Structures are given as C-alpha cells and as structure tokens.
C-alpha cells in the first residue's frame, strides 16, 4: 500500500448516499493534478488528506489513485486554509470572508476558530449571527470527522460511517461503543458480521 499527501483542488463527482467520490488533487512532486477515487464523503476543496491506497489505470479515465483509508489533516499554509474555509463546508464563511479571516489571522486561523472563536469579531463585517453560524457548522463538521475516524479503525467504510452519523448524530461514537449490534438493526447494509467485528475489538 502506498501513502500520499494531497490537497483537493476540484471535486468531479460525489455520491451523497455512499460517499464514492472522484477528485482532482495536487500531490507533491507531480506537475499535473492527480485523480483520486474512493469513499471520501464531505471532503471539501482545499482539504489536505493523507491517503493510503494504490495506483491503478482505468481503461476509460486513465491513471488514478484508489484510496482505501484516509485521514484529513488541517491545511498549514495560508493558501490552503483560505481555500478550505472558502469551499462552503463551513456555513457562514464563503470565499469573501475566508479571505478576510485568513488575512487577519494567517496560519493561526484554524486555531482561532477552534479555541477562541470570539476573535472573529475582529474581522470587518462579521457579527454575532455569523459567528454563531460558523461555530455550529464547525462543531458539526468536527463531529462528523471524529465519527469517520473512529469507525475507520474498525474497517467501517466512510459510506457506512456517513449513514451511522445520519442515524445517531453526535451520539454515534457512544452508541456504537455501548451496543455495536444495534447497527445491524438500525443501519441498512451493516450486517451482524461487521457489528460483531466492532464488538470483539
């Protein structure tokens, strides 16, 4: 298995039901954008990913990196942070506010949103309503990612992780830890074998 680090530049296709996605990503030491395929639900443009998988050549679409597992790491550059925040993933921040926020806080932007969100009032045009919207959206995204990462260690695909999150919301991790067998009843497509695999770990 090969590991690559990449930045999502363009989302070509995304299936909201099962999470299957096709993306164009920038990979270090590659002059051209690379096609990345896999279950990559809710990954926005600008996201930085560490992907494990293998290269394959598709007859129709050419060379692709097929991602088996992934983890998202926060962008570290001003460009990456601005692109990430401006992607529409965080409600209340579009490209305009992403630019203004990053202009004000630079590479500390993620830290400010995470730990000291009140400082967003320092940015011209940002009021109470917008800060609340950003806070709620940021928390929700964090919850989804935590659930994805937690379930990946049990071999649960991101497609099923998304279904589990839709079913249980922020209680997902607690519910799965407490009684993994309920997944077989509540989530269509998850069988007893998967639930048993989680229970035995």
Question: Can you offer a commentary on this structure?
Answer:
The structure is a single chain. With 201 residues, this protein is of the alpha+beta class. It has three domains: 72 residues, Nucleic acid-binding proteins (OB fold (Dihydrolipoamide Acetyltransferase, E2P)); 58 residues, Orthogonal Bundle (DNA polymerase, domain 1), CATH 1.10.150; 47 residues, no CATH class. Helix content is 41%, strand content 25%.
In sequence order, what are the helices and strands, one letter per element? EEEEEHHHHHHHH
Mean pLDDT across residues: 86
Please give the count of helices.
8
> Can you tell me the CATH class of the largest domain?
Mainly Beta
Structural class: alpha+beta
Number of strands: 5
Alpha carbon gyration radius = 18 Å
Span from first to last CA?
23 Å
Strand content: 15-25%
Give the assembly state of these chains.
single chain
Q: Sketch the major β-sheet.
A: 5 strands, mixed, barrel
CATH-defined topology of the largest domain:
OB fold (Dihydrolipoamide Acetyltransferase, E2P)
Poorly predicted segments: none
Helix content: 40-55%
- What is the domain total for the residues? 3
The CATH level-2 architecture of the largest domain is identified as: Beta Barrel
**CA-based shape:** globular
CATH superfamily of the largest domain: Nucleic acid-binding proteins
How would you write the strand order of the largest sheet? 1-2-3-5-4
């Amino acid at each position: 298995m090969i590991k690559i680090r990449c930045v999502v530049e363009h989302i070509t296709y995304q299936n909201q039901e099962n999470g299957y996605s096709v993306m164009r990503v920038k990979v270090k030491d590659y002059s051209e954008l690379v096609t990345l395929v896999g279950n990559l639900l809710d990954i926005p443009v600008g996201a930085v990913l560490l992907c494990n998988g293998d290269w394959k050549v598709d007859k129709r679409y050419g060379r692709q990196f097929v991602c088996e597992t992934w983890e998202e790491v926060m962008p570290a550059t001003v460009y990456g942070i601005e692109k990430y925040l401006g992607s529409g993933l965080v409600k209340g921040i579009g490209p305009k506010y992403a630019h203004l926020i990053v202009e004000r806080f630079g590479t500390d932007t993620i830290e400010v949103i995470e730990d000291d969100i009140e400082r967003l009032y320092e940015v011209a045009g940002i009021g109470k309503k917008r800060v609340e919207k950003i806070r709620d959206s940021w928390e929700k995204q964090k919850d989804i990612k935590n659930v994805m990462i937690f379930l990946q260690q049990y071999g649960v695909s991101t497609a099923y992780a998304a279904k589990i999150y839709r079913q249980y919301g922020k209680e997902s991790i607690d519910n799965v830890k407490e009684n993994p067998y309920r997944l077989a009843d509540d989530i269509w497509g998850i069988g007893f074998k998967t639930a048993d695999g989680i229970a035995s770990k």
